[in-house]
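Form P-L/3: holo structure prediction, ligand nicotinamide-adenine-dinucleotide.
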Amino acid sequence: MSKLRLGIIGTGGRGVGSFGQAFTTTFADRVDIVGLADTNTIRAGNAAKFLGISPEIHDNAGDLASRSDVEAIVVTSPDCFHEEHALLALQNNKHVFIDKPLATTVDGCLNVIEASRRAGTVLYMGFNLRHQVVVRRLRDMAREGLFGDLFQLQAIEHYNGGRTYHSRWNRLKEFTGGLFIHKGSHDFDVLNYIMGDVRPARVSCFGSVSTLKPEGLPFEPDPGIEPGPNCTVCPYNTRCRDAYAVNASPGSISDCLFNEETAQIDGYYKNLCMYMSEKDTHDQGVAIIEYDNGATATHTECFVTPISNRQYFLEGTKGHGEGDLHANQITFEPRWSKEKIDYQLDPGTGSHGGADPVMQQNFLDCIAAGDRPTANAIDGTWSVAVAVAAELSRAERRMVEISELMDPGSDLLK
Ligand SMILES: NC(=O)c1ccc[n+]([C@@H]2O[C@H](COP(=O)([O-])OP(=O)(O)OC[C@H]3O[C@@H](n4cnc5c(N)ncnc54)[C@H](O)[C@@H]3O)[C@@H](O)[C@H]2O)c1
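OUTPUT (holo model):
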């Protein structure tokens, strides 16, 4: 079998650390990375060296997408570029993997669906949580009717690492549309996925920067000496318990991709002071969704916490379910019974609780054997619609109807 000739747009943490590494190790017999595109060509060059490959390096996505020898493209650029990069790939009839979110606007998502229909190639929406063993099993149990009709779901994310979003581009809506889009789109998709054939109808949301602001600094600055601008040069980097040394270990992936040399090109430091940096998103918040059958769901996200876990709680007419991604455990308690059934699951190996390799293999199988993507652009659009509604609700302090953002009955969503 000949290898798939593939290019990656955006050679940062995700593009190199997950896809680059997987395609040069686990899937090396199926994939040849023949091109890397990044506005920072020093970073892309370092990525190639780190991965031990010699692809052509491009300083823009268009040059990679228009190459006739490239068959598939992985889009792992910042969120605000996903629509543009997906369209470039689709207009050139490539198979495309887009990491979440599909786009940062609902119109952007609909544009991608249209382009994908015209291209007729594989468009794979990168919702890796759908491949995590707990989520997969919860969805199967829901489909098999174990919980009966689901009428209430809760998704809770506690993410210690989420505080570092406030140290890089992720903290600004111009790049992400807001953290409910950047991060929450994962969980909104899981809620939609488990809920099944019903659709989200309206959203209310609250959130704020509660801690990651100057008043939240975890030390008392000396008079007249400002903290920041990044942890590397901050005069308080030995006193601050959140100080973050991006490239601490020489030869590590972050040392190769995010160092003084790469920062000379784009000024991109991943350890801007999370307290002093400007930001227009939240560090904690909650969104409430009503589905078109009256079922409700909540998604709570907290990025200032010592723990990291995702938990899901399901209520149905036949019983109660709980999924814990950290423990890889599911509990089911049938209604009207004292019975409690625990399932201890094996997540397998690989990043994101074993989910990434399963998703990457599924993407390759979709191209090679015509398998159906586990998530497509329509799924990506529903998730972004909820996330955009959440951001709008938070900003305007009102409930937002999904129908304000798109026509839920549109042919594009069928
Ligand atoms: N599914 C997951 O679990 C998961 C995890 C991490 C990141 N992601 C997604 O991956 C994407 C990248 O995130 P990351 O953490 O790797 O970010 P990053 O900052 O580490 O990397 C982004 C890269 O894109 C490059 N870039 C910026 N503008 C570009 C442009 N116009 N054209 C080409 N390249 C450009 C940057 O130079 C950088 O190298 C995001 O969309 C994020 O949502 C998904």
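COMMENT: Residues 377-396 form the longest helix (20 residues).
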